[in-house]
Amino acid sequence: MEKIKLEILGLSSSQSQSGSFALVLGEVDGNRRLPIIIGMFEAQAIAIEIEKIQPNRPMTHDLFKSFAHSFNYSVSEVVISDLREGVFFAKILCSNGKDSVEVDARPSDAIAIALRFNADIFCYERILNEAGIVLTEEGEEEAEEIKPKTAKAKATAKKEEGLKDMSVDKLNKMLETAIEREDYEMAAKIRDELSKRN
User: Fold this and answer.
1) How many whole angstroms separate alpha carbon 118 and alpha carbon 116?
2) Region 125-136: what's the mean pLDDT?
3) N or C end of the chain, less CB within 10 A?
């Protein structure tokens, strides 16, 4: 299976789900985006490493790094390996020079660990095809012109409630609009609803 290299493009708090964050990954040599909804603690672990903030005590992902180094293991890469019923799965590939080990993980944890080891982040082509969002140049220009709405959180919550009752055509139109506005969180929810129906 072909692997696509990804980079972290953004991390923002969820407007509709309290305590959730939208992690947006982007194709390194392309225009596809992969939004993943993650928890608050995982978002904090990712943000701390991106900002190079040194906590007083080691966090769980820092502990994983220390533990791995104690046994001469390092992380070579992480791969977002599967998508089932709207849930992403990941693998952490570790090596000590002789043996290689593949560890199952949530993508948020895998990415937090990849950042600590300066490891590359990948995704299989089929997952990016299924769950990725293509950003066109037109969409980027239009998105810059759109200002955030004051009642955005309320509107998003109402849309989420009604997704199950909407037709596939209506969902596809909403997906296009969400992409144009760079509302990756809403786009991810619409994509997940469409995935459930396929």
Assistant:
1) 6
2) 86
3) C
